[in-house]
Design brief:
The complex is a heterodimer of chains A (195) and B (190).
Chain A lengths: L1 H7 L15 H6 L4 H25 L8 H23 L1 H7 L10 H11 L4 H31 L1 E2 L2 E2 L12 H22 L1
Antiparallel strand pairs in A: 1-2
Helix pairs in contact in A: 1-7, 3-4, 3-6, 3-7, 4-5, 4-6, 7-8
Chain B lengths: L1 H12 L10 H6 L4 H33 L5 H23 L1 H7 L3 H4 L3 H12 L4 H29 L11 H16 L6
Chain lengths: 195, 190
């Protein structure tokens, strides 16, 4: 029952983007379409789960003083794995996401979970925690990407349903800020009603 | 002339926060007061230029000759983290006043994606060393400009009644969106 909670909390109640407001850079930078958001979310989820597993495995062997640098090395290794794999098998997505793939290293969400959860809990709970947080992050990115793609280019996952262009502003930089602002506001309303 | 183009492009056209979405965390975190955002800008400018120079030398004199290009991410983040620590220690000893002003912001900078982002962008943009210095410095200026603008507006926002759900982060994002729209006007300048 408790294990279920570890997984569950990351999806809505402690959602990385809507509630904790962590990892904003890739959220805004990569969500020009639903597909890109999904790709970025899954890449981050992979890094998050793997680094959570490794951190919780070695948590008793790392001296307290050097734990942050060690976590960063672990995370950076998995980011490099993602980077090289994506470059080999999904080159077009890799081009689109560009700079934001190496920048998963400095995503506060990943380091945050390593420090706040994986360094204190067992491997199994950390795996679930990473998976839940990652999927919550992916969900949020996918939602934001969908909103921006539907409004901005009148399409969803590449399927067009209007002729011509949409409201271009939503594909450009300002749309990212505005769409995210209103999504968070809607989530706030929803969460407060529940409470 | 070349340097001037880099300067204008990095500050206005490709503003690191409003057009490239790097460094959003400190942008949202410290932008509620004007004073702290000026301090943050100073710290970021300092670390960014230093980190760019060091990572540039590493890339071209260590990683490339040895064929270790794929180690870029790991090397850069470690170097930046170590650099921030060192800057903190040196500042504490050499100039306590400056440390007082920048001190609390320095640890935050390790996870500021703008610093790593600029280091990688410098390599991707194939700049030479002087250009890299100009590029990183003007990027920091652009970051500062966006931060100062947003924090001034947020200070004024405190006086205004905002709908309940929009309080805090959402309204800051709306303001950032409008600022980004204004900055779109610079597109095509360079």
């Amino acid at each position: 029952m408790n294990q279920w909670k570890n997984f569950n909390k990351g999806l809505i109640a402690e959602n990385a983007i809507f509630v904790q407001v962590l990892g904003m850079c890739p959220t805004l930078g990569t969500t020009t379409s639903a597909y890109n958001g999904l790709g970025m979310g899954l890449a981050t989820t992979f890094v998050l789960v793997m680094s959570n597993i490794v951190v919780s495995l070695v948590r008793n062997y790392i001296p307290d003083k050097v734990r942050i640098p060690s976590f960063i090395v672990i995370i950076a290794s998995f980011v490099t794995v993602v980077e090289l794999t994506m470059q080999a098998y999904l080159p077009s997505l890799f081009e689109e996401l560009g700079l934001f793939i190496p920048l998963i290293v400095v995503n506060c969400l990943v380091l945050g979970r390593a420090e706040a959860f994986a360094s204190k809990n067992t491997v199994w709970s950390s795996t679930l925690d990473g998976l839940g947080m990652g999927l919550g992050f992916t969900l949020a990115l996918f939602m934001l990407g969908s909103v921006r793609e539907i409004l901005g280019s009148g399409a969803w996952l590449g399927m067009k349903f209007i002729r011509g262009d949409g409201m271009l502003i939503f594909v450009l930089a300002p749309g990212a800020f505005l769409a995210l602002a209103y999504l968070i506001a809607i989530m706030n309303k929803f969460n407060r009603k529940n409470a | 002339m070349e340097y001037f183009v880099i300067l204008i492009s990095a500050i206005f056209v490709n503003n690191i926060v409003l057009a490239k979405f790097l460094g959003i965390c400190p942008f949202m975190g410290v932008s509620s007061r004007l004073e702290t955002s000026v301090g943050m800008t100073g710290a970021v400018a300092f670390v960014m230029v230093l980190a760019t120079i060091v990572t540039y030398l590493l890339q071209y004199y260590v990683l490339n000759p040895l064929g270790l290009g794929f180690m870029q991410t790991i090397t850069f983040i470690l170097v930046i983290a170590a650099l921030v620590q060192m800057v903190e220690i040196v500042l504490k000893k050499v100039s306590p006043e400056l440390y007082q002003a920048l001190g609390i912001f320095l640890p935050l900078i390790t996870t500021n994606c703008a610093v790593l982002g600029v280091a990688i962008l410098t390599i991707q943009g194939k700049y030479n060393l002087p250009e890299a210095v100009v590029f990183s410095f003007s990027t920091a200026l652009g970051f500062g400009l966006a931060l100062v603008l947003l924090s001034s507006i947020r200070e004024a926002l405190d006086m205004v009644e905002v709908p309940n759900g929009m309080k805090g982060i959402p309204i800051a994002f709306v303001v950032a969106g409008i600022l980004a729209m204004a900055f779109l006007g610079f597109a095509g300048l360079v």
